[in-house]
Design a protein that fits this description.
This protein has a seven-stranded mixed β-sheet with strand order 8-7-10-5-4-3-11. Strands 1-2 form a two-stranded antiparallel sheet. It starts with a helix and ends in a 13-residue tail after the last strand. A hairpin with a 5-residue loop joins strand 7 and strand 8. The protein is α+β, with helices and mostly antiparallel strands and 216 residues long. The protein has a domain of 143 residues: Sandwich (Jelly Rolls). The chain contains three helices and eleven strands; from the N terminus they run H-E-E-E-E-H-E-E-E-E-E-E-H-E.
Length: 216
């Protein structure tokens, strides 16, 4: 009887599946294309860090060789790519100009806006994700502490899809409706406030190119 009980117990234990090391959810990692992995299925509570950020609105920046003011941003320990180390360009849509951090490699695109908080970027700040070709793109909000507006654009910079994405949202399908080469993220509410919508064209500098040699 004891042997039978042990055999049944071992059988039951062996029927409980566990995650393997190479298991990945079907959704992409934070703010990247659908070809990437990462994420968690555990409900996430709002872990927004309580930070003290220096106010740069008084002009406490440094000038580069061209005379443009470069704001200084706090060091974010959880980030691989600190925003002050990223290429930054000016891009316009309609009459509105934005300063965009360039995410031009797969590693940068995977990190995106992860771990940044609302005070880390201004209304005219954002990120531009550039790929080597047009394709259906899908972003999600893993480890992203703020709501974001997103514009999917074709190779000419014309907007084909817009959303307001909710922080920590890993389930909503925020895919582009048409093949896209550029994806631009801004603070939530900016698109509606400025009347930026589908059909408008971003004037994207020629220096914004993918560095992944056609592998994205």
């Amino acid at each position: 009887m004891t042997n039978l009980f042990l055999a049944v117990t071992l059988c039951l234990l062996g029927c409980t599946p566990g995650p393997t090391l190479d298991e990945k959810p079907s959704a992409p990692s934070s703010l990247t294309s659908a070809t990437s992995g990462g994420g968690t299925e555990t409900p996430i509570q709002d872990p927004t860090p309580k930070v003290t950020v220096q106010d740069n609105s008084s002009g406490s920046g440094v000038q580069d060789k061209k005379g443009d003011v470069q704001d200084k941003h706090r060091f974010v320990a959880d980030r691989v790519f600190q925003v002050d180390k990223l290429q930054r360009v000016k891009a316009k849509v309609d009459k509105h100009e934005f300063k965009l951090w360039v995410m031009d490699t797969d590693a940068k695109r995977q990190e995106g806006m992860m771990h940044l908080v609302d005070t880390d970027f201004k209304d005219d700040d954002g990120m531009i994700f550039v790929f080597s070709n047009e394709d259906i793109r899908r972003f999600w909000m893993h480890n992203t502490y703020v709501d974001l507006d997103v514009c999917y654009c074709d190779k000419e910079g014309v907007i084909n899809t817009v959303y307001t994405m909710k922080k920590f949202d890993e389930t909503t399908d925020y895919s582009s409706k048409k093949p896209s080469m550029y994806v631009i993220e801004l603070k939530a509410g900016i698109l509606k406030k400025l009347g930026i919508t589908v059909g408008m064209k971003w004037d994207i500098p020629e220096t914004v190119v993918s560095k992944d040699d056609g592998k994205d």
